[in-house]
């Protein structure tokens, strides 16, 4: 039967786009003695130590009507913005504010539409943190050419780029990256207005805005928001805005209410195997391995922390 | 006042992410005698002949409960699939079927979940059309390196890649591109099940699936669909599926009910100026021009056809 039944339809799509295990097909030669693995096999074989549990002090829970968005803060790239957003969250600044913009294939943005809410112990604006010294960063590089930067890879689970000639490094605008809106003055941002990338990576924004974190879980609560019909995706009517129930540091939330998220460590052999499996897909469905991978086409895997084994 | 009022907030965001005209700032040197333009200025100055109105015979209207999606078919790349999808549309095959999958940062997919609907004069499956000869195509190339292919650019408004060494060319998986799902057999697709890219370009699918069109208007009706909670974003319950009211060729729709869409011609000096403006953003907000552009970060502009001038 050629046209898939619903089961076959699911199988078709599993094979169309899956990271799922599937029989191996003609594959690139494996290193001597090593059988190449699919990305699903790599993750299934990963050791517990290949995963890192997010630090509650560096994690934000943004509660939307549809559910929780988990954002990891990226202090390596924007220490002052991260400290400021943490102070805003600790002071409940974003609670009761709203998403006021959703531009298709671009960004969702939230903050105080009236611009008058007190910031408490936080700052309204901060000096820009668009880039930083490459020195001191462990950039796990990807092997392929990038359209925009001399080098790309990951610092922890944050996608990043570097220019060895200038000795500078910066976080890059991949899907799910969170940044601080600003006005024309480079130092006019600070974190009171935030945006997240919901479409093709707008890499032309790299080094033009301070990126300060990454959504590691719950992107679907942001990416499905109705697109605004005003200019640049702003909601034309206040009642269209999506309320933010709360926006808190995980460390300010009782432990039993936390979401324990783990991300794959990128400074591991397991991650290298994962990259290899994504550069050349081995699943039977694939006929032409890409042989390359874009930094924004390789989200670092995240998962809920597995329950500890029961006591013996 | 540093924190924007609602008006200032809009202005901030206009400047954050806009293609809008703004005062020029430090800009790359312009060709002698030519002042560089922003992309908004390029489009504002485009001649009527720089725009091409879609041919109703190559255009699909997919009517969802929230509105119309306009898909241009790409016969240069997949002539048999385009003919088959046209036959399916002409025979009302998709009317009453449904979107059954929405996977975040990946694809939305629709078709016949039961796989039993007769296809009429169309075919259930077709030989794959993953690539074609480069010869005979007018690939308007982009100047920057691409991670995945030796050459990238546009054929009409379809993003495409080419390998001069092999003499082959293929459409690429950018946001909004529409393809024909298939099973493991490369010739098991045909267009009865279709998908559209709703996130970061999954370029590893290039040359592995037949791409047959591009959404030129109405992507927001697809990109906001609730993500399925089943494996790979399938809706777990039939009632979650999003019904397709109709899926018709524009030429099968009465003229007064058509949406006349125009796309910017890419084989023009205007498009070259547009590419230049997108590679190096001149708006005052930008501080570090990217100097490069990715083929999937450059959607070809589309608009509704302007009303003809009133009779004299």
Description:
Two copies of one chain form a homodimer. With about 300 residues, chain A is α+β, with helices and mostly antiparallel strands. The first copy, chain A, has two domains: about 5-50 and about 265-300, no CATH class; about 55-260, Beta Barrel (Cyclophilin), CATH 2.40.100. In chain A, about 15% of the residues lie in helices and about 25% in strands. Chain A has five helices and 17 strands. The first copy, chain A, has a nine-stranded antiparallel beta sheet with strand order 14-4-5-12-11-13-3-2-15. The first copy, chain A, has a five-stranded antiparallel beta sheet with strand order 6-10-9-8-7, with no helix packed on it. The longest helix of chain A has 12 residues, at about 5-15. The radius of gyration of chain A is 21 Å and the shape is globular. Chain A starts with 5 loop residues before the first helix and ends in an 8-residue tail after the last strand. In chain A, about 50% of the residues are buried.
